[in-house]
Design a protein that fits this description.
CATH class of the largest domain in chain A: Alpha Beta
Strand order of the largest sheet of chain A: 9-8-11-10-12-13-14
Number of strands of chain A: 20
Oligomer: homodimer
Helix content of chain A: 40-55%
CATH architecture of the largest domain in chain A: 3-Layer(aba) Sandwich
Number of domains of chain A: 3
Largest interface: A-B, 79 and 79 residues
Strand content of chain A: 15-25%
Radius of gyration of chain A: 25 Å
Chain lengths: 460, 460
């Protein structure tokens, strides 16, 4: 698998001078991402593309590359695989679609492809795959232009190219967490989700594995590999095709069989994978688990809530109940410290509605003193801190606050309820730069904190 | 109620020259929002604030104002109410908190307040309320600075001030739908959610009522008014304090009793209110119902899905199943029209995975022809259209596309999965300016479309 993700040399078969073709864009991406290995474009009709020397055929390459990406039409794939295989290349990414995901002819072609590659000992990612990303070495095989990702600990396994192009683009432009590796499985004629889980599980640079799946290729293998990994590293799974209607749609997308959902669900629980139900949740949990990956384990699932808004308190309490978590029972000493920031005569409990404290001592002091008191309470395992970015609150030094709260190394989330988006966007950037997760609803913040606590508590 | 929402004159008792005080900010907001009535600041120690003549006492006012907003400490509230009541003012908003939401003394004060106002025939909104908004006449009583809202059809009923200041600010800065009126109930010593529902129900400028509730003051009255309105106008209800833990938090926030949730849920179904579970869902559905308020009714709940991504198809299909909707069974003629945009040999079904059509004829033509075919199919009641803003797709003229699809007057949503946020933000603005709702996940788009179809089908 190493040669798929850390190739020292890569051949792009079907390289192109045409800027709108995948065979050009892969080269462009590799150069822009600063790929650290050697690149060999292969095309009988070109001498040079983007300053790279082009080779007329695979057999004219100066060495056997670790990996080949085939950007040729499906009709040519078998011939190219055979030629490359004879030259000695045994790791290939096949981009072309319309194999088992297409018509009867494509189905037959894929069968022939499997026969050929198995007989030649070639390992294949695809067909219908736009391949892999490894941010560590600038490796990217996308056939669409792609800005370099931020480096980080989350690795994604996706089904088709839209993930790499669509969501990755979204992560780059709107999110702050970083990515380690990406694998796009496509039709899985050879390598599948289980292989990727095993490999990502063994990679130190990856601290969270996030998987979008429409179906499992080999159930037994998948469960075995997942069980091996999910005990050591969070394994998030978004499986679509859960319902009868969804399963029918799946069949026509990737030809996957999606099986009975209850069986899948029970299996996921058994192997300690974390199941999610939409992409928002996948990213919500991935970033929290990644940010807190190196923080110490926790004792329980007792949550403290500090909120500028009473509604935030009540909605958080409902969410704590929905997620099966517990509300921390704050000690008398903590309550005493909290209440010292309020006008005389106030009572407080967890969740803490702190508006009156803000009016009394200002937002900076209220947030800091109250959250510190809560963090120091041994009855508290994790905290959700709710902001509304409104005048008074906006005067806070949010970076200083987050830095002061991080020292406790108890998982926490910052939640913004409403507020001026222009300021919220700015604060979100500051907070996430500190590797603290930000959410825009109390429910999502609690769900993330709860997942981190369960993970760090061995209860996933 | 008219005098609360369409006062021709308003007294601000406790007006202030201090820019950081609520008594200053109300005046500032009224001026900036262009309030069309007469403003009477009352303060014994000032002559002029913000160019407005200040009156030393209520009794020195040149007329009996339709409405008074009391921005005085709780200790002074009873005296001021009595003085203003004697002068003839019988509509008052009381801003001060720490009444029944505070200590025992506050509890007693609120009881005295109720006694006093009832005996004098004064109607009260509050205490612990920052009042009302009516965008039509520039009426706003917020004690925090507030940018003017966009005018529109959605009216909100909230429990405490955070809604007006926090969420409204978020709506103004990040959303495109407009607001008609807002009522903040506070402690509901007199006027409550039922009164507001009845009033908003009778207002033509309001086409959706959205309610955040921690508890119901008078269950029977609430159900009666809700039943009267919810048949004619969509009534969205977010009720927190659903769980035991949440209910405990509620009690300390607004002193509301939240009761048994299953009972509430059954009652909401009975009166045809639409229950939601978080603020995202509240806004998601409010804008869709408002945008499509004047569109014709529909025959069923059969949904078509047009998606650039196979994953979008499968996730939408799952969501259609989760929401109890149906996937449209497209006619042969529709299929034929759709397939004419694909390379030879393709098969399509609903949900339509259109990537290959985009590759064949370009994004503009593929989206337009396929969506038009789907819209024209009598088996289709509503459509979800999924975009990934990636190269190729970005070349589309999105405004022209949306305008061409709107002519069918079948409810539809645009969903963005991933993509470059900088472009997505821009497209979102263009689409929502056309009064078509945008979502960022297939699940949320389907939920919104489904709710609109049910509403227009008489099945809510």
């Amino acid at each position: 698998m190493n040669r798929f993700f850390e190739p020292q040399s890569i051949a792009v078969i079907g390289a192109s001078k045409n800027r709108s073709k995948g065979g050009y864009r892969i080269l462009e991406n590799l150069i822009e991402w600063g790929y650290t290995g050697r690149i060999y474009p292969v095309n009988p009709q070109a001498d040079e593309i983007l300053g790279l020397k082009v080779f007329p055929s695979v057999s004219s390459l100066p060495e056997i590359p670790d990996l080949a990406v085939l950007v040729v039409p499906r009709e040519m794939v078998l011939d190219v695989v055979e030629e490359a295989g004879k030259f000695g290349i045994d790791r290939m990414i096949i981009v072309a679609n319309r194999f088992s995901d297409g018509d009867a002819e494509g189905q037959k072609l894929e069968e022939s492809l499997v026969e050929l590659t198995e007989s030649m000992g070639i390992r294949v990612l695809g067909p219908n795959s736009i391949g892999v990303v490894n941010t560590k070495i600038g490796l990217v095989t996308s056939i669409l232009p792609l800005e370099a990702y931020k480096k980080g600990g989350v690795s994604f396994i996706g089904q088709t190219g839209m993930f790499l192009g669509g969501f990755a683009r979204w992560i780059t432009s709107s999110q702050y967490f970083g990515i380690d590796k990406v694998a796009i499985l496509g039709n899985k004629c050879d390598l599948d989700e289980a292989d990727m889980i095993e490999y990502f599980g063994s990679e130190k640079s990856c601290n969270v594995i996030a998987l979008y799946l429409e179906g499992v290729k080999d159930g037994r293998k998948f469960l075995k590999k997942a069980a091996n990994v999910a005990g050591k590293k969070p394994l998030l799974i978004l499986k679509s095709g859960r319902t009868r209607i969804g399963a029918r749609a799946t069949a026509s997308h990737t030809g996957s069989m999606s099986g009975e959902d209850r069986v899948f669900d029970a299996a996921m629980k058994q192997v300690h994978a974390i199941r999610v139900y939409d992409f928002d949740e996948l990213f919500d949990l991935a970033k929290a688990l990644s940010y807190f990956a190196d923080w110490p384990s926790v004792k329980g699932e007792r949550v403290g809530v500090v909120s500028v808004s009473g509604a935030g308190c009540v909605l958080s309490a409902d969410a704590i109940s929905d997620c099966g978590l517990m509300l921390s029972d704050l000690s008398e000493d903590t309550i005493k410290r909290v209440i010292s920031t309020y006008p005389p005569g106030w009572m407080v409990q967890n969740p803490i509605d702190m508006w009156s404290a803000i009016e009394e001592v200002g937002a900076d002091e209220a947030y800091l003193k109250i959250t510190q008191a809560v963090m120091e309470d041994p009855e508290v395992d994790g905290v959700s801190i709710i902001f509304m970015v409104i005048p008074t609150v906006t005067e806070m030094d949010i970076r200083r606050f987050v830095q002061a709260i991080k020292v406790y190394e108890k998982p926490f989330a910052i939640c913004f309820m409403g507020g001026d988006m222009r300021v919220v966007d700015d604060w979100e950037r500051i907070i996430e730069e500190e590797k603290v997760p930000v959410y825009h609803s109390p429910e999502r913040a609690i769900r993330a904190i709860g997942t981190v606590l369960r993970w760090k508590n061995g209860k996933v």
